Amino acid sequence: MVKASSARPKEGYQQKWYEKGIIHSGRKVLSMAVPASYNDITVSQSLRYHVGAVWYERNFFVPGSWGRRRRTWLRFGSVHYKAEVWINGEPAMSHNSGSLPFEMEVGNYVNFGATNRLTVMCDNRQGGYTIPQGNNHEAEGNRTKERYTFEMYNAGIYRSVHLYSTPRIYISDIDVDTEYFSSEQLGVVRYRLFLDGDFYGKSRNRAYYIHVQLQNQESQVVAAQINRHPFRGSLQVHNVRAWWPFLMNPQPGYLYRLQVELHKGAYKGEESIDDEILDIYRLPVGIRSLMWNNDSLLLNGKNLYLRGFGRHEDFETRGRGLDYPMMLRDFNLLKWIGANAYHTTHYPYSEEFMQFADECGIMIIDEYSAVDIDANFLNRHLLENHMSVLEQLIHRDKNHPSVIAWSVANEPYSSSGYGSAKYFQSLMWYIRKIAQGRPLTAAISRPFHDDKKNNLAELLDIVGFNRYNSWYRDTRSLEGITGAVTEEALHWRKETGKPIIIMEYGANAINNYRSLPLVVGSPNYQRQLYSRHFLAFDTLRQKKWFIGEIVWNFADFQTAQTVSRVGGDRNGIFSRNRQPKEMAYVLRRRYYALSRHLDKAMVPRAHEERKMDWMVTFLKNVSTDSSSSLE
Ligand code: GCB
């Protein structure tokens, strides 16, 4: 990898590094790991805070046998932020928003049975019309200054890059939609298949048919069908095992396997399935029904109460880079603490993560990085980008049973004025049309005491709000928390008549930082702050339309360097290296107590069990009088 000058971000283009190879760029060539954020891999300050382009390069080999008989594809899981790709010096593809995959058929660019050169330019500069927005290319003298949202400082090729092949005529996509009828123990899987490739005339209609099978986890076929153009149908599964979230069923996350074979030959009924198989596509499928109304969100007919976390894909050295051990560790901790949901703050997590969420029964509020949408840019350019990234997100994640809602924005400027009414009406109109059976939500943080109307809240199916009572707001005044949270939830309910969820709340805690009287930033302050939120949540839960509590943040995470964030953001319930802070034990008691209380879940036989009883009693009996001491 080489770093282009911040002051001359176009130098790589002007000097055609993609043609000559970066070794001839005259810049220092660094070894760089993929997948990873590049910021913390070396010891260079300037690379860590680099604003502008870096250029990656590597050679790769393509098997000779792929050339004639198959199609060759190159796929990037995520490059943050902007990517341009050359193959053997030829411009091949570009993509404009990190955290989402992009791919292209590259058969015309590569040499088969030979070595090829791949060059990727990755530029982390964001602007007013990009999503996320930023303003990090403001030059100060000959230096480019970073001005991005404080937690979006990393850059690089975050996720895996795959070279793969498909048949010449191939299954390019599947849409799956499921329903579960509990009284009959019946599951329905509706599918729609998309083919692509070398079709001539009307041959697509007649010359192919598909053999669709649904297999259970013992590889037994539980439903099957032979079907032809337009390649859509539905399968019925008797004695079905539904997909359930963690702690709502003893066996959460049950997945069937949908296998679709594409056959060449005229459709003649059952006997024709010996014809040549052109392609096979396998997809894990969880069978469940998702519904919502003005009071609740229901899965398989049961009311959901979400208890979970916002999180960052963040760890030492690799930054936002895909990291399997860390991902697994996080799921293990999530189960240990008894949570059932993640809000993918503030970008789509990796595809591997989503597959794991399906398997573990962890529900996902799926979000793209429309963070802090700035009022000064609410125009058509931003809107089109906003629509595009959400469409890409929905396309990527539509088949995951774990996805229970799409979050269209985090803390946007949504108060009246600046054209926000038109902006959000257009956005919501478009996303609603492609929402694939999920409700739309967002995390609102605009003040609610002023007389400005909120132009987004009223359009949502579920209203989320982020509020840092006694942390960013009224720091130290723990007494006011319970009343303030209750008041705000009641406000949004009154204004919208929709289910309400708290999408972020919390406080920093630095391990072993103790003092009496209490100090801000100590584990005890964090615990007290949370406990007072719990009092509000338990009052609100009685109202049924309050459907969840999401903590900020799962773990401490690194941020851009600012005086207010020395050592990063310490809002974690776990430390950055994924060890529990004191609050983790309290939250664990609460989450398991809620699971037992709401979903009759079995709770772990840990020594905390007795305390859990205490917690439930405590939650039931405690008065909301803010003077009750929790020390
Ligand atoms: C927020 C943001 C989140 C931040 C958090 C904080 O409201 O949504 O991205 O990290 O506050 O700790 O400042």
Estimated radius of gyration: 26 Å
**Named CATH architecture of the largest domain:** Alpha-Beta Barrel
Number of helices: 13
- On the 0 to 100 scale, the average pLDDT is 91
Distinct bound molecules: (2S,3S,4S,5R)-3,4,5-trihydroxy-6-oxo-oxane-2-carboxylic acid
The proportion of residues in beta strands is: 25-35%
Largest sheet: 8 strands, parallel, barrel
CATH class of the largest domain: Alpha Beta
| Alpha carbon gap, first and last residue | 53 Å
Segments where pLDDT lies below 50 for 5+ residues? 621-631
3D structure, described in words:
The protein contains 13 helices and 30 strands. It is α/β, with parallel strands linked by helices and 631 residues long. The protein has three domains: 2-166, Galactose-binding domain-like (Jelly Rolls), CATH 2.60.120.260; 168-288, Sandwich (Immunoglobulin-like); 293-629, TIM Barrel, CATH 3.20.20.80. The strands form eight sheets. Strands 23-24-25-26-27-28-29-30 form an eight-stranded parallel β-barrel, surrounded by five helices. It has a five-stranded antiparallel β-sheet with strand order 1-2-8-5-6. A hairpin with a 2-residue loop joins strand 21 and strand 22. Helix 8 (380-397) runs parallel beside helix 9 (420-433) and helix 12 (582-599) packs across helix 13. The longest helix has 19 residues, at 523-541. It binds (2S,3S,4S,5R)-3,4,5-trihydroxy-6-oxo-oxane-2-carboxylic acid. (2S,3S,4S,5R)-3,4,5-trihydroxy-6-oxo-oxane-2-carboxylic acid is lined by residues 151, 345-346, 410-411, 466, 504, 552, 569, 571.
